[in-house]
Write a structure and sequence with these properties.
Elements lengths: L1 H18 L25 E7 L2 E9 L4 E4 L7 E4 L7 E6 L7 E5 L14 E4 L7 E4 L6 E6 L7 E5 L11 E3 L1
Antiparallel strand pairs: 1-2, 2-3, 3-4, 5-6, 6-7, 7-8, 9-10, 10-11
Length: 174
């Protein structure tokens, strides 16, 4: 007797799934789903800085996609840090006295389930057209770069190192 009552209940619950099939979709047409994973999760913005005298010039650092620059308030973006040893960015700092000077700390600084490691600290003196590697490659994850307010050659770097264990390169560097 219980099986007789259960059958209509199952049919009612499955009705939305049965009706959802074979719908004509004007946006995707005949597109079929495909497997593109597994992969490291990306798309996260870990760092952002702006030229204060020209706030339409924005720099973002991504979890695994490098540094991107917008010169129109975020309407469009172009990559400026894509050919270095890593594209995982944890920190960006723009020298407000000379906005052509950019500092980038690599390796995500926000530990989470998927985490991209870095290869130290980079500096550009031409607005991101070229980059110099400054070291700290063993720090793995740089979370913050703070620049001296009047001396473009001085920065403080906060490195978390290996996020889930001891790491002798963890610390603050000048």
């Amino acid at each position: 007797m219980k099986k007789i009552y259960l059958l209509p209940f199952i049919l009612v619950l499955s009705l939305p799934f049965l009706l959802a099939q074979d719908k004509d979709d004007p946006f995707f047409g005949d597109m079929k789903p495909r497997n593109i994973g597994p992969a490291g999760m990306s798309g996260r913005i870990n760092a952002i800085d702006v030229i204060l005298k020209n706030p339409d010039h924005i720099f973002i650092g991504t979890a695994s996609g490098g540094v991107w620059k917008s010169e129109n308030g975020g309407t469009s973006w172009k990559p400026i840090f894509q050919n270095e040893e890593t594209c995982a960015v944890g920190a960006i700092a723009v020298d407000q006295q000379n906005p052509n000077i950019l500092w980038v700390g690599t390796g995500e600084g926000n530990p989470r389930n998927s985490l991209s490691g870095g290869y130290g600290l980079y500096k550009s003196i031409d607005g991101g057209r070229s980059w110099n590697h400054l070291g700290l490659e063993k720090t793995r994850h740089i979370h913050r770069v703070i620049l001296h307010p009047t001396n473009s050659d001085v920065a403080w770097i906060a490195a978390i190192g290996a996020p889930w264990g001891e790491h002798k390169e963890r610390g603050v560097y000048k």
